[in-house]
Amino acid sequence: MTGSAPLAPQEFPPTLREVMLRGRWIGVLALCLVVAGVFAWLGQWQLSRAVDTDPPPPGATEQVRPLTDVIEPGQYLGEQLGGQRARTEGTWVPGDFIVVSQRFNDGVEGYWVTGQLRVAERTSIAVAVGWAPTRERADAAAAALEKRGAVAAEITGRLIDDEGVEVPPRSDPEELVRMSPAALLARWHDIDELNVYRPYLASVTAPDGLVDISSPPPQEKSPINWLNIFYAAEWAVFAGFAFYLWYRLAKDAWEREVEEFEDAAGTASDAEADAG
Questions:
Q1: Pick from 18, 24, 98, 247: CA 20 to 30 A from residue 218's CA?
Q2: Are 30 and 243 in contact (CB under 8 A)?
Q3: Rounded CA separation 115/94 (Å)
Q4: What confidence tier does 217 reach under pLDDT thresholds 50, 70, 90?
Q5: How deeply is 35 buried, as exposed, middle or buried, from its count of CB atoms within 10 A (0-12, 13-18, 19+)?
Q6: Where are the alpha helices (DSSP H) in the chain?
Q7: 7: pLDDT confidence band, cut at 50, 70 and 90?
Q8: Helix orientation angle between 23-50 and 226-275, rounded to the nearest 10 degrees
Q9: CA 174 to the chain's CA centroid
Q10: How big is the CA angle at 103 (ends 91 and 217), to the nearest 5 degrees?
């Protein structure tokens, strides 16, 4: 790619401009233009994703909305909907009040009592009912809720994403340490062909024997995604580097031709001197 044809006899070496205007380097420049165009398009795509042109209004998560208006069973919770206050009604499923440990309420570690709320025919959502400072109080509250049986309930709470499944402690393989509807589903009853919401509801009001779950509003997020802006700047740098690479290669080729010309001129001068 960098070799050159034998130089025709000439008085002066080629200029850098003359080398850059040769067909070979014009072709390389055209290729660089294509590459830079692709990088520019990628940068523009990143910029289009860097600014949210339709952010939710301030305090949108604090407006209580019907659960079915926010999300459907099986759907993932969108980033803008995290912490959205929602309400629903249904019937508690007996036998499915389960305690989850390592739950913090205003910085104090304790336990949640959770339940399966059947909100429609073959459709359920996991609900964090309330908080207790000790396992004994949590177990007692769960037992009291079990005694009430399949009673109707109306719940208002925050929608929170599944925390995922974690290996339980060896000391108690049955202990749950994360609030995961997927993990709770494995322990629920009457789950054949059951539709389940992926997020769960953290109830704002706890029943007797439990403490209200502390669930402050989510922090308002900036409509600007600085990471995407950084990526867009990177693509611009890559586009500029494509042109620099063309310039550097062409200049290297020019410098080699100049060196060859000077070497040839020096050899000719030596030969003339020897002949004289």
A1: 98
A2: no
A3: 9
A4: confident
A5: middle
A6: 16-20, 23-50, 67-70, 135-148, 181-185, 226-275
A7: very low
A8: 160
A9: 32
A10: 75
**pLDDT, the chain, mean:** 86
CA atoms of 207 and 118, how far apart (whole Å): 18
Rounded Cα distance between 184 and 178, Å, is 10
Q: Give dist(CA 76, CA 54) in Å, integer.
A: 20
The residue with tokens 């290996």 is 167
Handedness of CA 186, 192, 195, 200 (dihedral sign): negative
Question: Which class for 237: exposed (0-12), middle (13-18), buried (19 or more C-beta within 10 A)?
Answer: exposed
Number of Cβ within 10 Å of residue 17's Cβ equals 9
HEC-encoded secondary structure of 171-196: CCCCCECCCCHHHHHCCCCCCCCCEE
- Tokens 């909305």, located at residue: 65
Percentage above 70 pLDDT, the chain:
86
List, for residues 101-115, the tens digit of each pLDDT value.
999 999 999 999 999
What sign does the CA torsion over 176, 76, 84, 56 have? positive
